[in-house]
Each structure stands twice: as C-alpha cells, then as structure tokens.
Amino acid sequence: MGKETNGVLARTSDDEVIKKQEIQEAQANMWKFVFGFTEMAVIKCAIELGIADFLEENNNNEEVISLNQLSNALGCCSSSLYRILRFLINRGIFKETSTKNGEIGYVQTPLSRLLIKEGGNSMAAFLLFESSPVMLAPWHNLTARISSKDNGRPAFDAAHGKDVWKYAEADPGHSNLLNSAMACDARVAVSAIINDCPEIFKGVNTMVDVGGGDGTTLRLLIESFPWINGINYDLPHVASVAPHANGVVHVGGDMFNYVPKADVAFLMWVLHDWGDEECIQILTKCREAIPKDKGKVIILEAIIGEKEENIIRGSNNEKLKDVGLMLDMVMMAHTSNGKERTSKEWAYVLNAAGFSRHTITHINAVQSVIQAYPS
Ligand SMILES: C[S@@+](CC[C@H](N)C(=O)[O-])C[C@H]1O[C@@H](n2cnc3c(N)ncnc32)[C@H](O)[C@@H]1O
Q: Mean pLDDT, to the nearest integer, of 159-180?
C-alpha cells in the first residue's frame, strides 16, 4: 500500500515536471512568434546597409573584415552595427571571428551570401519585396477578410483600394520590386528544373511563359535548352519594360483573353494567385494555345501535402513543406482568391479545364512540376 502510494506520488511529480517543461518550451516558442517580425526587419536592414555586399567584395583573400572597417565603409554607428550583427550571427547569418590584430571581425556564411543584392542565388530582392510597406499593410486585414462566411473584402484591396496587379500597374517602382522578387525565385526554381528534370523540354520548339514576369525564367531555360524559342507573355506594363534576352520575345496581353500559340504553355507561380474558376479560365486559354496531339502545359507550383501523401524531395523536404503553408497564407493576404493547392485540388482544376492526364514531379524547390496533357 505504502509502495503504491509512493508510486502514485512519484508518478504525479514526474507528470508535474513534464508539464512544467512543456509550459516553459511553449513560452520560449511563443516569444519567437511574438518577435518573429524582428528577423525580417533586421535582415532587411542588413540588405539595405549592404553588409553582405561589402564582405563579399572585400573578403576575397579570406581576409577578415573588422567591425571598424565595416562601420566606416557603411557609414554606420559601430556599436549599433555590432548589435545588428550579433542578432544575425545567432541565426547563422554572418560569422564573427578575429582579425590578424585581434579585433572583432566578420566573414560570410552560406546564409549571409543569399543577402548579396545582385547575384546568382541572391534572395535579397524577395525579402525587400515582402517586407515593403505595401506588402505588409494587407496582413492587418487578414482577420476582417476571413471573418465572414463568404470571405470578406480581399486584404490587399482593403489596404490599397485595388488588387495587387492594378497596384503594380499604377506604381512602376513597386512593379519593379515585384518583378525583381519573382526573378529571384525564378533563378532558384529554374536551376532545380534544369538539374532534376531536363527531359521535360526535349523536342519543345516553342514555349510561351504565361505570366512570365521580366523573362528571367525563359532566359535561363533557353541558356540550357537553346533549341527552344521563347515567348514571354505578361501584362503590357510588365512586358513593355522586360529586358532583352536572346531567344525570347516579350508579348503584352491578358491571359484571361488570349494566350499566344506554342508547343508548350509554361506557368510558374501564376495559378496560385487565382481561385479555381479563374484557374480553369486561364488553363482553358492555355489548352487552346497548344497543339491537341503533342502539346502540354508545364506548371510550377507548391503542392500542399495531404496526410496520405509521401512526398520525397530530398533533405529539405520538411522545410520546403512549411514554405508551402506560408505561401498559402501569403496568397490569402496578397491576392483576391489565390491559394496553394493539394494534388487533389490540382487534379480538379486541370480536369475541369480539359486536361485528361497529368503527372507530378517533385524537385528540390518550393514548387513541384506538373505536366498536363489535353484530352
Ligand atoms: C507571381 S508572378 C510570377 C512571375 C513569374 N512566372 C515567376 O515565377 O517568376 C505572377 C505574374 O502574373 C502576371 N499576371 C497577372 N495577371 C495577368 C494577366 N491577366 N495576364 C498576364 N499576366 C498576368 C503578373 O504581372 C506577374 O508577372
């Protein structure tokens, strides 16, 4: 009996310890969410100051850049710059080390290299776009948006009086920010396509990139698959300022009305901006643009995993899965009806638009590759 009592007492106290640990862990996690914005804000500051650019230009001979050198070069208050760097270093962005003279110094890390303003893998433009006041304002309207049975006024419209595309048309500076951000992702996604599924472009003579932005995607694809003739198709205000690229013709137009004819219609991060009915309209226009016998549509989009799905995408699988869920929230804040879709939801819009067969290939990117064939 005594033993049993002891047993109960011991169990109770173990339970209490576990409960206390769980509460402490929950509190520590909640602090991360409370101050989650600090990461975006401080990384934005680092990009604007050009910390990664200066280190990259001057770290050449593996020379460590001292805090003094850095603050003088960037025209910054040394003690504030030290605190900014301490925060970032704690997250693997930059590394603190000592100079030859024993002063505090810094070097780049794989993460900090992504903050260089220009460059192959840079994600700086994406962060500057998402952290711009224009893109942050709609988040304050998220609750109002969903606090109505049939979805309230889109959060972006409520903040700015028009949708994201009309806003970009009226504000060339913002349009440029948007196009640069998309080009940033395009460089990452296209390199994954080229590595993981180059065979999908075999025998493709003409390809139209619908909603292709500034043409970065087509330019990079044609560099690797030079037999493709590319049509970069986007709204007139985007196509008219897109830079020249060999093998690419820029055409302005509205994909809801018309899509230029080609062997393949390519859509990356376009359909997730729209609701199902709009996707069916766009895909129908794409189906009409390609040959019925040998044409196809290539779609690059995130696929939200369903419980029964076992998506294998390599070591980044879990992290990329969460990016898909974050993007779904971004669609809710920034577009009128856009959303990320599960494979079943993709099957629905594709079938409704007249594509009887499709395949899904997972690549080492946020997006997967869907190839759809007309009936
Ligand atoms: C999220 S961006 C994707 C850009 C590019 N595909 C990429 O992934 O880098 C969506 C693109 O769709 C374009 N777009 C929006 N509405 C359009 C329409 N009605 N007709 C053609 N393009 C449109 C936008 O201008 C923008 O460039």
A: 97
